[in-house]
Amino acid sequence: MKASVRVFLKPGVLDVQGKAVENALHGLGWPQTANVRVGKVITFDLAGADEAEARSEVEAMCQRLLANPVIESYQVEIAS
Amino acid sequence: MKAAVVVFPGSNCDRDCRVAIERSTGSKVAMVWHGESQLPDGLDLIVLPGGFAYGDYLRAGAMAALSPVMGAVRAAAERGVAVAGICNGFQVLTEAGLLPGALMRNQGLKYVCRPVELDVVNARTRFTAAYGEHRRAVMTVGNNEGAYFADEQTLDRLEGEGRIAFRYRDNPNGSVRDIAGILDRAGNVLGIMPHPDRAFDSALGSADGALMFQSVLGSA
């Protein structure tokens, strides 16, 4: 299975990188852009066949290491 | 007093910390590699130094927080041994859950490296007692992820319980409520972003950091 984890700063936590990118986009002539957020994507292979089990394992990985729950939220995607 | 400095791959202030502790307190300092699962017996102070432990991969401090030595640091903290995380060490302590909150990218998106003036907010802690009436301290900061963040409830609790040890007088990085250093609930774990280890002799521009190490000496 392939796991993909998207990690972003929580809503309400100021994303200074997102803000800088947004300002740059405005400067380049795209004033219609707003709420730019910069995050990261972590992908990996995962042995096993049970999707629900895989999801709960990856959620645990997010809590322990992949995300910092104090400031970040995450989304898990599992593909077989 | 007996002290230890933990050395992670990528630490770069470990030797500074050792010299600062030796010169400030006359104590013996053991250097402990991150792969060790035990610390020397009878320690009064453990310092997690500044640097870029594990290259700051994933998040500053995230990998270091999982290294073998941190189990022993956690156990020592629970026994009441003084633990100070300086700069990257502060990041490691928050990632390890030994201190609340997190350290985020500086608001100006720049690595900030300069002297800062601090208020010693609470001079009745194991890390600040020696400051006494000397309530201003000059140290330098050198960080990219130095902006302290915690939710409002946590911040109110830190304030209410006297756990904000140091505040910036002129916030260099966007830290919430100008926080430069905090304590854990029991008061024996300190995280501080500025470097007392770079301020232990007036030849370095300031000797105010020596008082932090001397405070621990006084409580040992």
Describe the structure.
- The complex is a heterodimer of chains A (80) and B (220).
- Chain A contains two helices and three strands; from the N terminus they run E-H-E-H-E.
- Chain A has helices at 16-27, 51-66, and strands at residues 2-9, 40-45, 72-79.
- Chain B has 220 residues and is α/β, with parallel strands linked by helices.
- Chain B has helices at residues 14-25, 69-79, 88-95, 152-160, 210-219; strands at 2-7, 28-33, 45-48, 82-86, 102-104, 112-120, 136-143, 147-149, 164-168, 179-183, 189-192.
- The termini of chain B are close together.
- The mean pLDDT of chain B is 97.
- The chains are: A alpha+beta (80), B alpha/beta (220).
List the helices and strands and how they pair.
The complex is a heterodimer of chains A (80) and B (220).
Chain A: E1 2-9, H1 16-27, E2 40-45, H2 51-66, E3 72-79
Antiparallel strand pairs in A: 1-2, 1-3
Chain B: E1 2-7, H1 14-25, E2 28-33, E3 45-48, H2 69-79, E4 82-86, H3 88-95, E5 102-104, E6 112-120, E7 136-143, E8 147-149, H4 152-160, E9 164-168, E10 179-183, E11 189-192, H5 210-219
Helix pairs in contact in B: 1-5
Element order, helices and strands of chain A?
EHEHE
Protein chains sharing the most extensive interface: A-B, 10 and 18 residues
Q: How many H/I helices of chain A?
A: 2
Termini separation of chain B comes to 6 Å
